[in-house]
TrEMBL record:
Family of the protein in this entry: Belongs to the virb1 family.
Lineage summary: Bacteria, Pseudomonadati, Pseudomonadota, Alphaproteobacteria, Rhodobacterales
Residues annotated as signal peptide: none
SUPFAM superfamilies: Lysozyme-like (SSF53955)
Name the UniProt record assigns to this protein: Transglycosylase SLT domain-containing protein
Domain of life: Bacteria
């Protein structure tokens, strides 16, 4: 029997050509079924995968500042440790003492530098190691000296007012004197700021000690620091100040004996 294409013949007795088409159709159906099952499986698994997924922790990064690279912005922010060791002073028991010390050190690095650069003629009475000291230790001496003077001027009280309203602050500075030396503060209230008062004191001493070449002296008039500060005119108070200063590490002479290097 010849194959026909009108569907009138018995399909079970179709020629091989028709049989092949049927088998091909069945194979195509199987392939489609398998593909649909696989696709269905994938679609079925996707929600499960998403459901089981655990979110990664979100790390917030600071936006880089203007002029700052992304790498710099991603660096952890930590406070910068201060590397400078503060010298020993007589006001260390007072609140705000570290600010006072840093203000005095800053002034000595600036307009107070003449004090650090020179060696007063009477320095042996105050600080035997001063002449051979580094600039850092010389500044330490002057801060210690300011604190020793403040003991007798104000007993370390920045709010102190003496002389019936004439002198103010840690070093009891007259406002007119502060203005005369072009300090940044020129009123009594402003001189009650401990840091500002000490900065002004450094400015005054940088002029008078350099001018006279001594910390304390007297000929026809008072010289050095004694020209402006009353406690320096008392032998007992000067002795108290110098005795304390000479005991500090920045004023002690270093031993010339050193261990020999091993061969």
């Amino acid at each position: 029997m010849k194959p026909t294409f009108d569907g009138s013949a018995d399909p079970t007795k179709n020629a091989p050509f028709k049989l092949v088409n049927v088998r091909s159709s069945r194979m195509a159906g199987v392939v489609l079924l398998v593909l649909s099952l696989k696709v269905g499986t994938v679609h079925a698994q996707v929600p499960a995968v998403i459901a089981d997924a655990k979110p990664e922790p979100v790390v917030a990064l600071a936006a880089p500042l203007k002029g700052q690279g992304i790498g710099e912005a991603m660096m952890p922010v930590r406070p910068v440790a201060r590397s400078e060791k503060l010298p020993r002073t007589r006001w260390q028991h007072m609140p705000g003492n570290a600010i006072w010390t840093r203000a005095a050190l800053a002034a000595l690095k600036d307009y107070g530098s003449p004090l650090v650069e020179m060696v007063p003629r009477d320095i042996e009475n105050w600080c035997p190691a001063y002449a051979t000291n580094t600039d850092s230790d010389r500044r330490a001496f002057w801060v210690g000296y300011l604190s020793a003077l403040a003991k007798f001027e104000s007993t370390y009280k920045p709010w102190a007012v003496g002389g019936g309203g004439k002198w103010y602050g840690l070093l009891q500075i007259l406002p007119a004197t502060a203005r005369g030396y072009k300090c940044n503060v020129g009123t009594g209230e402003a001189l009650k700021n401990g840091a500002a008062n000490l900065s002004c004191g450094v400015r005054i001493m940088a002029y008078t000690v350099k001018r006279d070449g001594v910390i304390h002296g007297r000929d026809s008039k008072w010289r050095g620091v004694s020209a402006d500060w009353g406690p320096m005119r008392s032998e007992a108070k000067r002795r108290d100040m110098s005795n304390w200063l000479r005991k500090q590490n920045y004023c002690k002479l270093r031993s010339s004996t050193r261990p020999r290097a091993r061969p």
